[in-house]
Design a protein that fits this description.
By secondary structure, the protein is α+β, with helices and mostly antiparallel strands. It has one domain (29-127): Arc Repressor Mutant, subunit A, CATH 1.10.10. It contains 4 helices and 4 strands, in the order ααβββααβ. The chain has helices spanning 3-25, 37-51, 92-108, 112-121; strands at residues 60-65, 73-76, 81-86, 126-127. Strands 1-3-2-4 form a 4-stranded mixed β-sheet, covered by helices on one side. Helix 2 (37-51) packs across helix 3 (92-108). It binds zinc ion. Zinc ion is lined by residues 101, 105, 127-128.
Amino acid sequence: MDSALFIGSIGLIVIGLILYIIESANVIKVSDLQIPTDRFVSLVFKWCEANIGNSPKHYKIKVFQSVDKKMAGQYICERNQIDIYFFEELPLIELVDSCIHEYTHHLQFSDTDTESEYYKWDKGFVIG
Ligand SMILES: [Zn+2]
């Protein structure tokens, strides 16, 4: 490999690393929130109701601090309950994504046909 190509390759790697560092420093995380996380989560669900669609079926939201950082959210059909899990370093965009995901399950299960079809095939009451 000639030296110009070698120096060019190293330069690209360094630029890539710098861009990676700048980008990860700019990610807004749960720890950056200026309001309590459960308050933020309830505002996200208000946004969902106003922008994705609403259903007369009532649902409960429970917000938990995740210990193993593996679980993002789940919908418990039996109780019409949405569980949302977070940890301090979780990017806010991922928290919002989980809320929208679980809200979609709530809407799916607000439709009686979908609900009965689901129970025909699956006896479980929890959806990820
Ligand atoms: Zn799901």
